[in-house]
Amino acid sequence: MARVALVTGGSRGIGAAISQALKDAGYSVAATYAGNDEAAAKFTGETGIKTYKWNVADYDESKAGIAQVEADLGPVDVVVANAGITRDAPFHKMTPEQWHQVVDTNLNGVFNTVHPVWPGMRERKFGRIIVISSINGQKGQFAQVNYAATKAGDLGIVKSLAQEGARAGITANAICPGYIGTDMVMAVPEKVRESIISQIPAGRLGEPEEIARCVVFLASEDSGFINGSTISANGGQFFV
Ligand SMILES: NC(=O)c1ccc[n+]([C@@H]2O[C@H](COP(=O)([O-])OP(=O)(O)OC[C@H]3O[C@@H](n4cnc5c(N)ncnc54)[C@H](OP(=O)(O)O)[C@@H]3O)[C@@H](O)[C@H]2O)c1
């Protein structure tokens, strides 16, 4: 039977490319989203991938949503914690609300997504946890104290889960995309975007599919010895 993959924020941007690539690789895929019903319906219409709406920042909603996915598709074997937001502001102007929104979605959202599937993965002795972090979690970024903190936190999560899950056949890895041409990046003013591109040795933004291919590799049986690692996919912009 096909393995089941859950992709949070899987209806748009990088997540949509991940959902599609996993489907193409033979997985039964569930893609989640927060509130953009129109984009989710369009995505399902175009791909045939089922979408589920819940807020990853809410533990009870996540648990109930995942239970529904498992009732529909079977136990979740692969989790891609991809849902994420930005609320940028220089630190002296950052509001507590901007801090908490980003922490609740990007960091607590990873806990809320992985925690409900962890016991089942341990029992079945197989699991793949893939967290979509960011180049800015590795290097920090002006006006992103909140975002960078959560994305650096992702790396701590996978390094710790890797140690806890290894004997149960579970791996946990992170991908740190550089700047990818999605709504999140296209929302920044054109001048800022041009300046970002000028700092990328590849001379271009990344494509969502380039991140999706990393996910398909990490999700596979073949990647079982890769655990607790961080894959940088950033066009040569930053080396750890
Ligand atoms: N784009 C980049 O250059 C870049 C670079 C490095 C890392 N990343 C990371 O990659 C991931 C995807 O980014 P993206 O650019 O593809 O984002 P995007 O185009 O803005 O799409 C975000 C997706 O996440 C969902 N989402 C947002 N908040 C959510 C919540 N509270 N609960 C459930 N779903 C939620 C959205 O649902 P709705 O459609 O309902 O809003 C949407 O499906 C993020 O974690 C981001 O930090 C992106």
From TrEMBL:
GO terms for molecular function: acetoacetyl-CoA reductase activity. Its EC number is 1.1.1.36. It comes from the Bacteria. Signal peptide: none annotated. Residues 3-178 form the Ketoreductase domain. GO terms for biological process: monocarboxylic acid metabolic process; poly-hydroxybutyrate biosynthetic process. InterPro entries: Acetoacetyl-CoA_reductase, KR_dom, NAD(P)-bd_dom_sf, Sc_DH/Rdtase_CS, SDR, SDR_fam. Keywords: Oxidoreductase. The keyword Oxidoreductase applies. NCBIfam families: AcAcCoA_reduct, PRK12824.1, PRK12826.1-2. PANTHER family: 3-OXOACYL-(ACYL-CARRIER-PROTEIN) REDUCTASE (PTHR42879), 3-OXOACYL-[ACYL-CARRIER-PROTEIN] REDUCTASE FABG (PTHR42879:SF2). This is Acetoacetyl-CoA reductase. It comes from Pseudosulfitobacter pseudonitzschiae. The gene is phbB.
